[in-house]
Amino acid sequence: MMVNNVLVIGGGVAGLSAASELAELDIDVEIVEKSDFPGGYAIQYACKATDQCVKCGACMVEEKLERVVHHPRIKVLSGARVQRVSKSDNFSVTLLKKPVFIDPEKCTNCGICFEKCPENGAVTKGFSKNHSPFYAISGEKCRYLKDQSCTTCQAACPEGAIDLSAGETTESTHANAVILATGFKPFNPVSKPYGYGKFKNVITNLEMERMLRTQGRALKPSKGVEAGSIAFIQCVGSRDAKLNHLWCSKVCCGSALRMAGLVKARRPETQITFFYMDVQTFGRDFSEFYAKIRKDVRLIRAIPGDIYPAADDQLRVTFLDNTSTEALQEEFDLVVLSVGMTPCQGLRETAAVLKVRLAETGFVQEADEACPHSERGVFMAGSVTGPMSIPESIASARKTAFEVAKYLGI
Amino acid sequence: MKGLALEAKTLILGCSREARKIAQELLEREGEVIVATPGNTGDAGLFNGLETARAAGKLEIFTDTGSFACSGSVGRFKVTFAGSGKPTARTVSSIIIADAVERKPNFSLYGTAASNDVVSLSRFSELIESGLDSAKNILEAERIAFLTGLVEESNPLITEEVMRCALKLQQEFKCQTYLLTGNLKVAGNGLEALYRQTKEAGAVYIKFSETTPAIQTEKSGKITISYVDEIIRETFKLNPNVTVIDETLQPSAFSRELAIKLEIETGPDGFVQSDNVHRTPVFTNRKGVFVAGFSRGVQTADDRQAEAASAALAVVNLYKKMPEDHIGKAEINDAGHCIRCLTCARICPYSAISLNSKVVVDPQACEGCGICAAECPRFAIKINAGEDNAISDRIPAGKKTADDGEFTPSITVFCCSRSAKGAGDLAACMGYSLPAGLQMVEVPCAGSISLHYLYTAFNQGADGVLVLTCHEGNCHSEYGNIYAHQRVEQVSDRLLQFGFETGRLAYKTLASNMGTEFAETVNAFDKAIFELGPSRLKEA
């Protein structure tokens, strides 16, 4: 009797949704997630409701993660990557697992390791209550892992849950079908003239989401005080002919305007400017939302040029406004770059291993009747095939789960 | 389908590609399907190719359904069609609404009227695809203008059609196209690339954000468009030979009728699904009733196909699950308490309560929100919460003030399980310190928090009572949070009349991922209660 077993590569909202649906059909699922904290990017997003829900979908990711973590048929392997895949009757997969530095059985989430660690970023924090342990040790920044020069967290842990000498392990597993749900990579705006990486108060929309989720306010990273004026710059890395990124990332207009709405509701005196090309529709009450937000936020239909440092810890943004033919300049406390979604890292290699095709954009080509990937048991879900919102990723994952069930004869 | 809990018989309402796909998928799984379409026989061609299933008695197709009625709930919906011929009744386990879209041309929106030279988008697409023998004016046109998203926002579906038409015109017909729009909607696969392609082929885009073009119909029937180019700030006049007007995509009349007949909450746009994230992708407020494709909203062909699969999956899941037991469901005490006022039946967001000879809750459809129990004027309903788990058993007693006079406020917090409970857990995870006197009472839905529970909390010595609910528009029971807010206000009014400090009772909305806001809210409330001092209702 064939035991049905599916491997989901990627524990973002699509991977979690697909796993959840398959488990409901009595199929065993393993999710391989490279980060310590499953949920992808979406689990890091803030709820952007004021007193009314703005339908951003962030809470849905929490629900999916909660369901997955508690489902007896689903196993989540965090800090794990797929090393090798081969197929005969079914798929043989070798996984490379990160060392288990913090024992989840012993950890009580007290946070002492985070407090005591001398190296900024070496102990990372989770996002959701379903991230257990809530802390993890980063391979890149940890001093012990570099030169064994520091064992502060190990010594400080009151439960003795930390073992810095733990090593990587490999694990072999089998699956009847594989779902590729590795999501996207946010565009790195370092190549743009906005000073990202140089100026502390130039951040990405993802960093803004994280800040709103953990602090509830828009703070200037340089000083930790609330920003009096904020500029949102849209389409950074999307709709960009020079970069050959000929796609719209779909969700950034919605997420930026909703974040603007939240900031305004919490601190009404904040001045917010939104630099855009075309505002994309989001949500089913878009007209109402758009009419309201235009009263609170200044919309400028231009994408800025260079950004320079200015006096008083501010940033000078240059742009061409429609009201004059000269370049204008304005100062802001905080600049948020709405970076686009790009194909995820290493997708070319993954595609070669799993024998899936890439579209011209570099995202994975959706299966169609001409070339159904399902013939070989490899499926796709979520933004690995192109920019998607949270509801779209969930819908995509459900469709994939249905197709996998068909393939397995369930 | 094997090993099923419910009979695999599904009713699909609507005439669309999605309806066909769902029917196909369910038939492949050996389910039985009834398809009912409102339309004329022309549409029934959509279901060609399913003759084998039809012959085997697995598929029934009703066209021209006429008046439609439905009673019952999940697992046993009784539906009646009364079209041409005598009324037919069927019993089905689940219902899927998947009709086509209605396209309303926006002639009047742009101050125009249909004519030979002023054409709707779908008509225009038809003409240039099928051949232009009947459309000499298009063939010979030098300038063709498309008006889209100028008064109301457009969408990627319409934008794609407009751009494809423009591309064809530029490449094959050598006419100059002008696309006048507000925000160009390119948030769809391949649309940015298509936009660039049309530009390279010579299409001219004129975008408006601050101004709107003035559109005038001359005596000759031709259109003159006067506008200010927002980039170079000069006024222009455009005289297209043919003007193409975009369309608004609306739910079909059939969809709208079904929403009313089946008691489905609709969204602000009239589509058959409430604008609530809990409903995505294909769910409604009623168990066993699903909605997909254009009945649900405006979406691209790919998304609609994904939804068809999603609807089929939802049905498969439904049929596989064991019937629900009674734990967590509402039960009505008929012996002397229920007076058949039907408040519960009218207020149930899931349409799970009906009147036969008694008022009865269908445990299959009941989601245990507790709104009925909280609203019943006779306390005749309770939620079967299992031993000692009833809400009333869990409302804590306030702590007495310490002998040394130190006052730690006893705060009773009613937490909705879907939002505040999660937020509270997250706050603890994030390491926030919460007030020492905080005691949480988790409830299935804020709508289950009755006036009685609020008074009880104070009577048992709480110094402060906080009600934490989902945000408006986010309640799984649609209005549970609204009812909770209303009840808090009612009790506050009463407290004012009693001379009891109204600051001791408050409510706030939260989501499950708002750990910081949970901590801020309870700590601020704790501080406020500390200022007010111990409650006079506490035993001395």
The structure class of chain B reads alpha/beta
The percentage helix of chain A is 25-40%
Q: Based on CA inertia axes, which overall geometry of chain B fits?
A: globular
What topology, given as strand order, has the largest sheet of chain B? Answer: 3-2-1-7-18
Structure description:
The complex is a heterodimer of chains A (410) and B (540). Chain A is an alpha/beta fold. Chain A contains ten helices and 20 strands. Chain A has helices at 13-24, 58-70, 112-116, 143-147, 152-156, 205-215, 252-266, 286-296, 347-354, 390-407, and strands at 5-9, 28-33, 74-78, 80-87, 91-97, 123-125, 135-137, 169-175, 177-180, 184-186, 202-204, 229-236, 271-275, 298-300, 307-310, 314-320, 327-332, 334-339, 341-343, 378-380. Chain A has a five-stranded parallel sheet, covered by helices on one side. In chain A, strands 11-18-12-13-14 form a five-stranded parallel sheet. Chain B folds into four domains: 9-100 and 252-320, FAD/NAD(P)-binding domain; 104-248, FAD/NAD(P)-binding domain (3-Layer(bba) Sandwich); 330-383, 2-Layer Sandwich (Alpha-Beta Plaits); 395-532, Rossmann fold (3-Layer(aba) Sandwich). Chain B has 15 helices and 26 strands. In chain B, helix 5 (156-173) links the parallel strand 10 (143-148) and strand 11. In chain B, helix 3 (121-130) runs parallel beside helix 5, helix 5 (156-173) runs parallel beside helix 6 (191-200) and helix 12 packs across helix 15 (515-532). The mean pLDDT of chain B is 92. The chains are: A alpha/beta (410), B alpha/beta (540). At the A-B interface, helix 2, helix 6, helix 8 and helix 10 of A face helix 6, helix 8, helix 12 and helix 15 of B.
